[in-house]
Design goal:
This protein folds into 3 domains: 4-155 and 280-350, FAD/NAD(P)-binding domain (3-Layer(bba) Sandwich); 168-277, FAD/NAD(P)-binding domain; 361-465, FAD/NAD-linked reductase, C-terminal dimerisation domain (Enolase-like, domain 1, 2-Layer Sandwich), CATH 3.30.390. The longest helix has 25 residues, at 88-112. It has helices at 16-25, 47-52, 54-73, 88-112, 191-202, 222-234, 327-341, 370-375, 391-395, 424-436, 441-446, 456-465; strands at residues 4-10, 30-34, 116-119, 121-124, 129-133, 139-149, 153-155, 168-169, 183-187, 206-211, 238-241, 244-251, 254-261, 264-270, 272-275, 279-281, 314-316, 355-357, 362-367, 380-386, 402-408, 414-421. Strands 1, 2, 3, 4, 5, 6 and 17 form a 7-stranded mixed beta sheet that branches. The chain is an alpha/beta fold.
Length: 478
């Protein structure tokens, strides 16, 4: 007799485990299925984000930035330290410990909320039956009233650069280098490529980023992208746009990369090569042929605005469905689905999902870009406040970048907040909160912001939208 559950979740990443917790909180008998094992060979919940994604990369980004500050900036503050060295295995070990603490925390949350955890591979059969293939090969079938598919994504592989996790690595391998590569190549100037490239550049690697597209950060606001490219190039990242990798050859401990750009075919030799060209949904053996759930040709599961699939009672969330592949988007979809299963009318605002790149300075945005609004024919007013005018930024030696606020010219409603600079993610979140309540630029300008703070730059940019900035010169109205 198969076990029966109100909700069965396949995948325990930031979408799945959050959905399971919320479903259990709402009184649903919930089970979650996960097969990922950590470095110790034991089941590790939390998905890519916790194990080999957002969290470990931030640990390395913070460690490498502290090293960079000690090396480059301390003397500015009058601090002399002598020769500063980085012990890479210790840095990586700290990262592993953080991951272990957090995955252990997710397990504890499952227990605390009464969620039954199954270790193994989950597969949706017809009639909302879920097959669990355990590590020992045994199979159990669960009966579910509702199923949530949250199987996540994995790095895209490209034929010219096959990953061996020794010399040519993906984002997972790049988190585990045991020493600093002399010369590091990165294929892809997206979020992952820039973050991982930054980590090793700060520690002394000579980093070359090969990006096939002609535009840098095409998804970001053009003005922000331009400034970010300038800052990152100044930091030592050699960013080559329009560079299409055509082949790689591993020679001993090194790899020769062949690529073509505006200057024709070229070759570069690296000690390590990171392939970071995007991610694709993990849907292999997830759905039985007669499950009734439909996918597109790229492996994304078709869902409506509320993450419901073509089968009543079956939902899909996170990286396996349309939209940005972001942990916070997956988590909120998980909450929405759990609440809808419980009969609530919860919906999500897909227009206000913040995007962040955790380089230093950070690059972040929420809402629409200037180029997309112009393409839609929307008349806009734009306010910009450089951090160079901020006393707090000066005190912190963090004056690169700016805050940009875009508002509708007719209604003054804020349509986008874009930041490159210190604490960009936090400032953009302030913008997102305000935009969620339908703020106008005038509203933001009338609020009292503490002085001296970085947040004042958001205040100043909002004032600048209508030519009322106090601490920066206002643009002349044409």
């Amino acid at each position: 007799m198969s076990q029966k559950f109100d909700v069965v979740v396949i995948g325990a990443g930031p979408g799945g485990y959050v959905a399971a917790i919320r479903a259990a909180q709402l009184g649903k008998k919930t089970a979650i299925i996960e097969k990922y094992t950590g470095k110790d060979g034991k089941l590790a919940l939390g998905g890519t984000c916790l194990n080999v994604g957002c969290i470990p990369s931030k640990a390395l980004l913070d460690s490498s930035y502290k090293f960079h500050e000690a090396h480059e900036s301390f003397k500015l503050h009058g601090i002399s330290t002598g020769d500063v060295k980085m012990d890479v295995p210790t840095m990586v070990g700290r990262k592993d410990q953080i991951v272990k603490n957090l995955t252990g925390g997710v397990s504890a949350l499952m227990k605390a909320n009464g969620v039954t955890v199954f270790e193994g591979h989950g597969k949706l059969l017809a009639g909302k039956q879920v097959e669990v293939t355990k590590t020992d090969g045994s199979v159990e079938v669960l009966a579910a009233e509702n199923v949530i598919l949250a199987s996540g994504s994995k790095p895209v592989e490209i034929p010219p650069a096959p990953v061996d996790q020794k010399v040519i690595v993906d984002s997972t391998g790049a988190l585990d280098f045991q020493n600093v590569p002399g010369k590091l190549g990165v294929i892809g100037a997206g979020v992952i490529g820039l973050e991982l490239g930054s980590v090793w550049a700060r520690l002394g690697s000579q980093v070359t980023v090969l990006e096939a597209m002609d535009k840098f950060l095409a998804a970001a606001d053009e003005q922000i992208a331009k400034e970010a490219q300038k800052i990152l190039t100044k930091q030592g990242l050699d960013i080559r746009l329009g560079a299409r990798v055509t082949g790689t050859e591993v020679k001993g401990e090194q790899v020769v990369v062949t690529f073509s750009d505006a200057n024709g075919e070229q070759q570069l030799t690296f000690d390590k090569l990171i392939v970071a060209v995007g991610r694709r949904p993990v849907t292999t053996n997830l759905l039985a042929a007669d499950s009734g759930v439909t996918m597109d040709e790229r492996g994304f599961i078709f869902v409506d605005d509320f993450c419901a699939t073509s089968v009543p009672g079956v939902y899909a969330i996170g990286d396996v469905v349309r939209g940005a592949m972001l942990a916070h988007k997956a988590s909120e979809e998980g909450v929405m689905v759990a609440e809808r299963i419980a009969g609530h009318k919860t919906q999500m605002n897909y227009d206000l999902i913040p995007g962040v790149i955790y380089t230093h300075p950070e690059i972040a945005w929420v809402g629409k870009t200037e180029q997309s609004l112009k393409a839609e024919g929307v008349e806009i007013n734009v306010g910009v406040a450089p951090f160079a005018a901020s006393g707090r930024a000066m005190a912190a030696n963090e004056t690169a970048g700016f805050v940009k606020v875009i508002a509708d010219a007719k209604t003054d409603r804020v349509l986008g907040v874009h930041v490159v600079g210190p604490s960009a993610a936090e400032l953009v979140q302030q913008g997102a909160i305000a935009m969620e309540f339908g703020t106008s630029a005038e509203d933001l300008g009338m609020m009292v912001f503490a002085h001296p703070t970085l947040s004042e730059s958001l205040h100043e940019a909002a004032l600048a939208v209508n030519g009322h900035a106090i601490h920066v010169a206002n643009r002349k109205k044409r």
